[in-house]
Amino acid sequence: MATFTSSLPDHLLKNLSERAKELKIPKNKLIQKALEYYLEKLDKASFLNSYKNMADDPEHLLLSEEGIEDWFQMLEELEKE
User: Fold this and answer.
1) Structural domain spans, the chain
2) Cα gap 4→78, rounded to integer Å
3) Which of 5, 18, 33, 41 gives a 20 to 30 Å CA spacing to 27?
4) Could you say which DSSP state residue 57 is in?
């Protein structure tokens, strides 16, 4: 595990210390969990935005519609078996 040093505003460091004591975990673990949570949320937001951007792109919309037709054809073939 790598180590890095950072500075935080006093009010944030105080809040971090208080929360870490309440949760009975080290401050670095609380920061780690918060960062993991935040980065996961950023990934989800990015994924959602990519879908929104595709919805506005006529080329992607056409590809999706063609893919849906193929999907329905595959389902129909599976039902025949």
Assistant:
1) 12-80
2) 55
3) 41
4) -
Distance of alpha carbon 66 from alpha carbon 63, whole angstroms: 5
Which tokens sit at 2? 């790598």
Q: Structure pTM?
A: 0.60
- The pLDDT tens digits of the residues spanning 7-25 come to 999 999 999 999 999 999 9
Three-class SS state of 7: coil
Radius of gyration of the chain (CA): 23
Q: How far lies 28's CA from each of 6, 9, 49, 76, in Å?
A: 11, 16, 31, 54
Read off the DSSP letter of residue 25: S
